Input
Amino acid sequence: MKSRRSRKADLRGADAVVLRILALQSGEPHRVRRALDDVDHMPSALIPHLIPLLATTPMAADAMRALRGVAASRSGMLVDALLDRRFPAVVRRRVARVMSGCRTRSAVEGLLQACDDDDRSVRRQCARALFLVHRHHPDIALDADRVFSVIDRDSESGAPDAGLLFTLLALVYPPAAIRVAYRSLRGSNRHARGFAVEYLNGVLPEQIRERLAPIVAGMGGDVTSR
Output
C-alpha cells in the first residue's frame, strides 16, 4: 500500500502539466479554475488548451486572466491563434483583447494583420488593442504606411466601419484631435463638422482623403469646408 501511494505521488509530481491540461479539457469550471490558480507558473504547453476556453462564457474570463499573465512572453502563440480563421470570431476577438497588454513587435504586426479579418468585430477589437498598445508604449513605432494600407482596404469594403477607420487614424495622428474630429463628424453642429473636415483635409494623404471622403460625408450628411 505504501509503495502504491509513493508511486502515485511521484506520478502526480512528474505529470503536473498533463494533469492541468486534463483539467482544462474537462469542461468543468471548478477544475479549470483550479488549474489556472498558479498564473505565475503557466507552462507554454497549456496555452493551446487555454485558447479554446475563450469561446466558453463560464470560463472565458479566467482563461483571459491567465493568458494576460503570459502574453508578453508568449505573444507569438497568441498571434498564431489570432490569425487562425478556424477559431470562431469570439475567440479571435478575445485573443486581441488579451494582446492589448503586449509590447512586442510581433504582437503589433499580428494585430495589424488581423485588422484585415473577415469579421468586423475582430477588426474593431484589433484596432482598439493596437491603440492601447500605442498609448501605453509609444516607444513602439508603428509604420504609418502599413496603417494606411489597412485603412485603404477597409474603406474599399462593401461596408466600411467609420469607428474602426478613425481608431486606426489615431495610431498615426494625435489621438485627441482624431477623437474630436470623429465626434464632430457624428454630431449635428455644422461648424464643428466643417472644422473636422478641414483638419482631415490638412493632414491626410491625398489617396486616403479621397477614400474617406464618402464615408465622412455619410457620417452626418454632406459637409463642406468653411
About this structure: Residues 181 and 196 are 5 Å apart (CA to CA). Residues 1-14, 222-226 have pLDDT under 50 and may be disordered. The first helix runs from residue 2 to 14.
